[in-house]
Design a protein that fits this description.
homodimer; 348 residues; alpha/beta; Nucleotidyltransferase, domain 5; 3 domains; five-stranded mixed β-sheet; four-stranded mixed β-sheet; 13 helices
Chain lengths: 348, 348
């Protein structure tokens, strides 16, 4: 077997490469040292906070392993773990960095620790493989939506209302590559910020009054009128948004409802809208969605999927795909050039 | 197949767990949300410099993939890559962190990028699995030393003179678990700092004069008299060491030679000392080692191993082990409780 080895040592001089043929003995085919560009070396040597991130990575590995044990499911019955980890940075679109265009992401929660503590093969770090194929590393949930909700005759939309709301559009009798997915706009995050901890059942919004002039102005945002693919960041609907618009709870709820409804209206053949995420608990918002949308509205619970657990289920399913050496991204959703096997496998 | 999925979302509330049974369909067995302790949540939200580290991680992935191509070996002949990456933090011994004892390490150089650019399955992140098994995550090189140099009748010592010098003691006719490995003390790093870029062939040291009083005092350091396992950090022989001792080039060379010689003298049955690392190029130091040591002295080049390429070769060999689901650490060297399959596999 011909195997290449790569390392840069603690002196941070450059990359040592060796190519060897391995059978009973080790035969060196080629060696090479490639110095780092000076600006790269300087950037590596000036990294800060690596200690804190490294320690958190190992600590979260312990906590993730313990969280699995809190389910009460006997570990010896679990054959595989898929762990997304905790995102501490995500930049799906490339930026200029030391003379190159670099997109990047970072999730922590050390998979080697999860595997060692549970004794179960663990797959983690799902987003980088999609990004290495030119994708945004997100959204990944359309893969699960497609598996769960595809139907030979009914066109469906999976709607997840988390901090941001997003939809996966699954045409009737479609292939995975026909799926469209994008962020519709705010989900719960403006409401959560206005009514902490959060206006769970929406009664606060029901008691309020929609500020129609403000709402009309907000709906003018070109984002809502642009065709997909598109995604919006959490920063778009943060404290700055609340301060500059002076938005109230009832108007925030209506903004979420109207931007979801107009996004789904782009797909008039839709027969079912299947809701998940924290927003599915908001009775008032669900009523408003039913009033604003023509298709049948239900929740993922009808399909046996707890509305709060869809993302955790997703990473179990993506791990299953990787275990079988099958792709887990949907290029039409992430923008990747091609399907990719996602994640990294820690064997036991 | 029963698979668990784990995620903590961008709201950093806690860990969502789902356990599902997957065959033709997806059956949810259990779900649970485990909130983060407040101090952990605060620590995650206060991480800094993650953007810089994430971007460097992806950039180094590109550079590592390109470095392999610089060897001129046709990529289509390479079946597997083992990449150590660039260490930006290593703390092999646990420290108190948010109420737990945590050992940690961090290597960057995104393996998903290396795999995507080369089209070759890539294994990376070798140290965490040893640490998850209670080891220091280092040294890993004894595994290669044992494979290369074990002998039915001759006891051998592999001596690597990098910034720090370390030895792997391989008794005649030994098993892997009989191997002993430890840092002997400074290698080239004091010399390098005194004669930048470095006193490659040792002529500067040869022309100088050893300060015997200082040398005797330095050799009194209890570290050199302590039995293994033991390891010393780069910080021990840095600018502070040079400033407080006033050490010169000839004395620094002799300190390296004498601490190596006394370490090897602990193993009087040693028949061969096999040198690798940058120090093997230092003619004067090699002469001094020959004078100070009884065993035959040679370099790894006699075994077909370029003295500068041993670590890169190591990670090719460790990847080969992992590919075959075999352990790659030597617990007696790293302090791990047991052998572990090292690294994480990025499939293509």
């Amino acid at each position: 077997m011909r195997v290449a080895g790569l390392i840069s040592g603690t002196s941070v001089d450059g990359i040592d490469v060796a190519v060897v043929d391995i059978d009973d003995k080790i035969q060196v085919v080629a060696t090479k040292t490639v110095p780092y560009p000076t600006d790269v070396r300087d950037a590596i040597l000036s990294v800060s906070d690596a200690a804190n991130i490294a320690r958190l990575n190992f600590l979260l590995g312990e906590l993730f392993a313990e969280a699995l044990q809190h389910t009460g499911v006997p570990l010896e019955t679990v054959e595989l773990i898929g762990s997304h980890g905790q995102t501490i940075f995500h930049e799906g679109q490339p930026v200029e960095f030391l003379g190159r265009k670099i997109a990047s992401t970072m999730q922590i929660g050390e998979a080697a620790v999860i595997a060692a503590r549970t004794g179960i093969e663990t797959i983690a770090d799902f987003r980088p493989s999609d990004m290495a194929a030119g994708g945004n590393g997100a959204p990944l949930v359309p893969f699960l939506d497609y598996q769960l909700f595809k139907h030979p005759e009914r066109a469906r939309v999976a709607l997840n209302i988390g901090g941001i709301a997003n939809i996966t559009v699954i045409p009737a009798n479609s292939r995975a590559e026909d799926v469209i997915a994008f962020d519709t706009g705010p989900g719960n995050m403006v409401m959560d910020a206005l009514a902490p901890p959060y206006d769970g059942d929406g009664e606060g919004a029901r008691a309020g009054r929609v500020h129609e002039v403000l709402l009309t102005k907000l709906l003018d945002d070109p984002y809502y009128h642009r065709p997909p693919p598109k995604s919006c960041g959490r920063e778009q609907y943060g404290a700055e948004f609340i301060r500059t618009t002076g938005i109230d709870l009832a108007t925030a709820t209506e903004l979420t409802v109207r931007t979801i409804a107009s996004s789904i209206a782009r797909y008039p053949e839709t027969a079912d809208v299947i809701v998940s995420g924290g927003g599915a608990h908001n009775r008032y918002m669900m009523e408003r969605l039913r009033a604003a949308l023509r298709p049948r509205i239900t929740t993922s619970a009808e399909f046996g999927i707890d509305v709060d657990a869809k993302e955790a289920i997703l990473f179990a399913v993506l791990a299953y795909q990787t275990y079988h050496r099958r792709p887990g991204n949907i290029p039409s959703a992430t923008g990747a050039r091609k399907p990719a096997i996602l994640g990294k496998v820690s064997h036991i």
